[in-house]
Amino acid sequence: MRRHRQARWDDTDSPGTEPLLSEKRLQAVDTDDSALPEDLTRDSLELPGLAEPELARHYTRLSQMNYGIDSGPYPLGSCTMKYNPTFVEDVAAMPAGATHPDRDEGTVQGTLDVYHGLQNYLAEIGGMDAVTLQPPAGAAGEFTGILVAKAFHEHSDESDQRDEVVVPASAHGTNFASAAMAGYDVVELPANDSGRVDLDALSAVVGPSTAALMLTNPNTLGLFERDIETIADIVHDAGGLLYYDGANLNALLGRARPGDMGFDVMHYNVHKTFATPHGGGGPGAGPIGVTDELVPFLPSPRVRETDDGYELFDPEHSIGKVHGAMGNWLVLLKAYAYISRLGEAGLRDASANAVLNANYLAERIDLPVPFEPFHHEFVASAGDADAVEFARRMLDYGVHPPTTKWPEIVDEALMTEPTEAESKDSLDDLAAAFGAVLEDDAADLGSAPTETTVARIDQTEAARNPRLSWHALESD
Amino acid sequence: MAEPREHHDEEPADDHPREGPTVDSVSTDSPFDGAASGSPFAPNTAADVEAMLDEVGADGVEDLFDIPESVRFDGQLDIEPRSERAVVAELRRTLGRNDDQTEFLGRNHYAHHVPSIVDHLSLRSEFLTSYTQYQPEVTQGFLQALFEYQSILVELTGLDVANCSMYDAATALGEAATLADRVRAVDGHRVLVPDYLRADERSVLENYTEGTDLETATFETVDGGVDPETLDAALAEDVVLVYAENPTVEGVIDGNVGAVGDLAEEYGALFCLGSDLVALSLLESPAALGADVVVGDASVLGLPAAHGMGLGIFACREAFLRQVPGRLVGASTDSDGTRAYTLTLQTREQHIRRERATSNICTNQAWVALRTAIHAAAVGPEGLLDLAEQCHRLAERTATDLDAVDGVTAPVRDCYHFREFKARVDTDARDLAADLRERGLSVHALDADEIQVCVTEVTADETDDLAAAVAEVLG
Question: What ipTM was predicted for this assembly?
Answer without folding.
Answer: 0.98
